[in-house]
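Progress note, sequence design subtask.
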């Protein structure tokens, strides 16, 4: 099971605002499911993060989603860093906090995961 698959369904529905059209980076990043490789999801989220046309909310969602992809790639330090950025950008967003909790738990930091 991938880290993204552990997200509650109501939280998974969030996507960067400009996710129109198939196979755009925003669409791939927001549809983190079995149709794309984890590497492709991480790359697509990186493209969204690098694109200044997206706002803070979209960047926060992309950081959170990339963090979940990094868990699946075994890059826990990067995952923790990405979700920290996500929660800093979007403090009241359930998706970014759920992603943060999953990442911290995956890294073995259960106390902070529970708080997230």
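Output:
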């Amino acid at each position: 099971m991938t880290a993204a698959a552990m997200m509650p369904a109501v939280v998974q529905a969030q996507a960067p605002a400009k996710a129109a059209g198939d196979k755009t980076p925003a669409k791939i990043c927001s549809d983190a499911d079995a149709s794309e490789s984890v590497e492709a999801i991480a790359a697509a989220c990186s493209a969204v993060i690098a694109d200044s046309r997206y706002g803070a909310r979209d960047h926060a969602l992309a950081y959170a989603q990339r963090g979940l992809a990094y868990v699946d790639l075994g890059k826990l330090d990067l995952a923790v860093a990405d979700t920290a950025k996500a929660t800093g950008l979007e403090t009241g967003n359930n998706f970014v906090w759920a992603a943060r909790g999953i990442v911290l738990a995956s890294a073995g930091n259960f106390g902070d995961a529970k708080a997230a």
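Residues 8-13 have pLDDT under 50 and may be disordered. Work on this subtask will continue into the next period as scheduled.
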